[in-house]
Amino acid sequence: MQRVYLPDIESAERMRARRLLEDRGFDVRVGDAFAASEQEVLAGIGDAEAVCVALGRVTAAVMDGAPELRLVVKTGIGVDNIDVAAARERNLPVLRMGRVNSFGPAEWVIGAAIAHLRRFSAMDAAVRRGEWGDLRQGASGLLPALTGRTLGIAGLGAIGQYLATLGRAHGMEVIAHDPYLPAEAAGRVGARLVSREDLFAQADVLSMNMVLTDETHHFVSTDELARMKPTALLANCSRGPVVDEAALAAALRDGVIAGAVIDVFEVEPPSADNPLFALEQVLLTPHLAGCTDHGYQEIGALTAELVDRFAHGRPVPRSSVVVEGEGLLVQDDAPAPAA
């Protein structure tokens, strides 16, 4: 296998996948879109044997329009832009970036929580308006600290586990809900597993760190929000549809919870009438939580390694496997280091 197609420039240039693959002897073709549509991917894939996408769409039509295609690689973790069911039907291997780029999203949760709780944006604007004295007097001793509060993590994978270590470093008690993780594994990163109900009821800062599936769609909706503390902060940098945006907006308007920090939306880009836009209790960023320089270096390196392993008949780590299709050899991951 030699021919690799990178439809979007985010994978090719920002993640350096083009250069890293060419350094390994692959014939690489690159598209010119930042987020390639189905039509753009289909128009450019040609005789490629592997396609690596960040935001580009790999649909059943793309698969059927690429007769030489043997491998699909997502240069990220969420595979909602890839038709996984179609790949499985065609016995086409699909890989993703398992166990890398964990630091950026975890850092975002802590940073966004501090920025929201300490009201950085509003304070910056107030100081520039000359309100230093009033602000200093009005807020002194009333700003919430992370220390002593409870961090709740929904999904204790690689990102969630690193977030647990950051929460502990900030003096937080860490609880988590993950039905697929044994209590011993949670304990190794200082987290205590709890039920889904207790997660919502006990967390002061509640972070969504899960992939989007039928099971996790609207994991947070009206009933779950009603269980949360009125002082709680919800953080989502996983996938937008994990949170029911309409329910979240209603809960914030009604004072059911105190605030939210949101990096991902149910529809991206979000429309101008998104109900969260009108709420001062929300801090918003444009799906950039994991888009750090360090994270992209990790992704580019793993992308080249996975393609190279598949091309030369060497096994890939199980944490990167989405569809175990034809020609793919798999091996168990090395144990993660203790926190």
Automatic annotation (TrEMBL):
Which key words are in the record? NAD, Oxidoreductase
Spell out the molecular function terms from Gene Ontology. Answer: NAD binding; oxidoreductase activity, acting on the CH-OH group of donors, NAD or NADP as acceptor
Q: Which domain of life is it from?
A: Bacteria
Q: Where is the D-isomer specific 2-hydroxyacid dehydrogenase NAD-binding domain?
A: 111-289
**The D-isomer specific 2-hydroxyacid dehydrogenase catalytic domain covers which part of the protein?**
17-317
UniProt key word Oxidoreductase: yes
Pfam families, sorted: 2-Hacid_dh (PF00389), 2-Hacid_dh_C (PF02826)
Q: Which family does it belong to?
A: Belongs to the D-isomer specific 2-hydroxyacid dehydrogenase family.
Please report the name of this protein according to its UniProt entry.
Answer: C-terminal binding protein
